[in-house]
Amino acid sequence: MTIHRGPTLPYHVLASVTPCPPGWLVQGAKIQGATFAPERPRVYRTFTEILDERPAYELIVVNAPVGCRDHPSDPPRHCDVTARHLLGVRGAAIHNAPTRPVLAGTMGWREGGLDAVTATLLPRYREVATEMSPFRQRVVFEGNPELSFFQLNHDTSLRRSKRLVAGRDERFEILNRHIPGGIGGLLSDPPPGVAPRHQLDALALLWTVRRVWGRGARRIPQEPEWDSEGLRMEFVF
Hints:
By secondary structure, the protein is α/β, with parallel strands linked by helices. The protein has one domain (1-237). The protein has 9 helices and 8 strands. Strands 1, 2, 3, 4, 5 and 6 form a 6-stranded mixed sheet that branches. A two-stranded antiparallel ribbon has the order 7-8.
């Protein structure tokens, strides 16, 4: 995978991005040599604002589909199927990506074979689909928090849902062992409208951002798959 690295600053600015009720939760970090310093989370109203931020984020891992099928009768994306198989008991956290007619609004989400959870996120997914191009994939990669936690947990799926207190505690403990300086301070005083589960997702994806930057991330499928617009359909974790 090719990563764009900007030359202008003495450090590099990276970010994970996940949908939240007010818009998009962005968990940024600065990296300089071996120093990786997460920053306070921020909320952006639109995905375009994230891409237009200055100084620019040099690497983004987003929890939203990048690349999609052309029609509901097409088979699901290979990355979605492979991720579900890999996660086993947590595989239901990987939803099929919407197809182009659904994203374009010419087909309803039920007709397009989507579940209700994905339907609620369609406005966010449309933002990403509008902005994405093969050129942008130098910077923007698709991730999923459950895959990030799988990797953090020694290639073992988590036991509980993030909607349960026990599930959030499980995620907190795992992240706290890996994120430099712990995550307690990052979770205090969250942005308005942002739930703890959104912050935990963003921090897990931030770990993946660091792995992608260091060229240590895995991707599925291993053999690249492209959609009809030339976008890679893959997860990094």
